[in-house]
Input
Amino acid sequence: MSERLDMKKSLITGINGMDGSHLADLLLKKRYKVYGMEHRSSVEDRTNTKHLEGKITFLTGDLSDQDSLLRCIKESEPDEIYNFGAIVGESWSAPEATGDVNALGVLRILEAIREFNPEARFCQASTSEMFGRMVEDPANEDTSFYPQSPYGVAKLYGHWITQNYRESYGMFACSGILFNHESERRGNEIVTRKISEGVAQVYLGLKTHLTLGNLEAERDWGYAPDFVEAMWLMLQQDAPGDYVIATGEKHSVKDFLNIAFQHIGIKNWAAYVKQDERYMRRAEVDVLRGDSTRARIELNWKPSIDFKSLVIKMVENDIKILREEK
Ligand code: GDP
Output
């Protein structure tokens, strides 16, 4: 691959995750040279990035290992760094590792940038989980945080340290406070993909029912490719800042089920869903909804698809995958 001199270079941590892979797709389209940092434990699972092999450069790195971050930054000399690397879903079983990677990992990247690449622009993937027990609905950039899990607490450190380095060292460091966002690449431990896959299995006669937890929870569900585009837009502005990225609509798990089952011609979805204590949360976040007015005005950003289209897209994709596997 010959490199053009004006080609921008980017480094994406968490490259094998849903967001990392969607951002790589976007940056390739924009003719960036893309470096993707993967943790050694995720090298084995390139489901989301198989199609990127040969198109991007994979680097092995670890957010809990400062030297590895320095190496990745020296090797890639990025103009832009996006941090999607995080421990997700092990909040309660591995709270210390969650803190080390999701909180201190951000500090390590910022320190590596400060030392070796101070002109690089940085975007942190912050999360609506930082709002947890929402004190304002919908939440905006000025709403107080109230995280409800070690994951949310750790992410809050990452958020504040990004702001702190921006203000203390004048770094171009931004945070995207991302509300729930999904796509066909979501892992099936997350409720949206668990439902889309389960509904596809019911449709194809591979399963008789789905087993879920709390069906009343409400989330502001958007489409992941839109959300990574918002992160890119943040780094193209004249000045750095923090932005809530959200659709502004909330829907319950029941709403998701209803649309997904209706799409396969089933009206009484409740007959196909069982509830189990196993999937109930220790400290549930009942509702999350964001107000993305700032992003819509300053970044000229808006979601490209609505909730119903998102659900149908995910169900259709799972039906297609399962048919191919048959
Ligand atoms: P989160 O918003 O990052 O926690 O995303 P999840 O997709 O993991 O959970 C969204 C909501 O769905 C939460 O309120 C869960 O309690 C609820 N939920 C209900 N059943 C399930 C389930 O079987 N798995 C998961 N992951 N969440 C479930």
